[in-house]
Amino acid sequence: MTFSAVIVAAGASLRAGPGVPKPWRNLGGRPVLDWSARALSGAGARRLVVVTTADRIDAARALLSDLPDLSVVEGGATRSLSVRAGLAALDGPPDEPVLVHDAARPFLSGEVIGRVLEALATADGALAALPVADSLRCGEDHVTGSVDREGLWRAQTPQAFRRHALVRAFDAWSGPEPTDEAAVMAATGARIALVRGDPRLFKLTWPEDFEMAESLARPAREVRMGQGIDAHRWGPGDGVWLCGVRIPHDAALVGHSDADAGLHALTDALLGAIGEGDIGQHFPPSDLRWKGEPSATFLAHAGALVGARGGRILSLDLTLVCERPKVSPHREAMRMSVATILGIDVSRVSIKATTTEGMGYTGRQEGLLAQAVAAVELPSA
């Protein structure tokens, strides 16, 4: 269904505490106004009118310059005057649906927009609303009575009407400042439908509302796990690289790079957690560029891929399986090395060592085994 929309963003925001007006405060890294405007435009608004204060007109145009069919106009001293200014800026068929929405309700969904528009097929107007769930009490500093909540609703926006009918209703209004457009239409005898709103569509009013809104604005996150296993055989040498730390030893691990099995296992664990294959795909042993390459390069690459996906490393747990060298004297240096390579706190890195008590290839000191598990937090798919 074709529709136009008016966003009211001209209020003084007196109850919201010090700072810029509500539509211009940051929420999830962008102004509150941006949330509603893009929701309505994305739902298919033919025309979008933003009503704001004179000093914010240029800022609103710049913020929403990429939205099609946008108009920004100056509002009035009251909400009703601002809505009327927005309606005057609209064109098109007089019976076209128009949605009026508060900029201070940023979490507007396409589902709510669809429900209020659909209700216009059988009603003169429609508003999103929620039934009152809390018990209601009367009084100032003590309870003097109660109010039956049956049949009571919390009105939200958007509210939908045919444009010419809403304009006529405002022209006929002679009462005090109306609470909303539904009140203006109801005064003409219009039938206003109640449709299911959304608890997230609350109005930013008090300073504490912004803290709650910020938590909703954060993208949903999920934790993913990855596992990495690497093994290298022992060969001639006088030292071994483990987790970026060189440990003097009477042998060396043999490999195409520096054969740091600990960093290789951690790299594979991170790649596995984000579904990016394994270390061999990113750094093929057949490529001479990586011959003798410090394995810190590989781990830093995996960490950068996590960051590029908007993720963060929660924890790394590495176990080294070998008879020698002793790991415990170097454990803290190894943890710090891994933390530095990845730019994370050392508390997120665990490094352990164990032996197989002489059993298997590690017990016979033919090679060293590294096993790693990574926990990564990513935006939900």
Explain what the structure shows.
The protein is α/β, with parallel strands linked by helices and 381 residues long. Helix content is 29%, strand content 29%. It has twelve helices and 18 strands. It has helices at 32-42, 57-63, 79-88, 110-119, 163-172, 181-186, 207-217, 261-273, 279-282, 296-308, 331-342, 360-363; strands at residues 4-9, 26-27, 30-31, 47-52, 70-74, 97-102, 125-131, 136-139, 143-147, 153-162, 192-196, 221-235, 239-242, 245-248, 252-253, 312-321, 349-354, 367-379. The strands form five sheets. The protein has a seven-stranded mixed beta sheet with strand order 5-4-1-6-10-7-11, with helices on both faces. A five-stranded mixed beta sheet has the order 15-12-18-16-17. The chain has a two-stranded antiparallel sheet with strand order 2-3. Helix 8 packs parallel to helix 10 (296-308). The chain is elongated. The two termini are 30 Å apart. The mean pLDDT is 93.
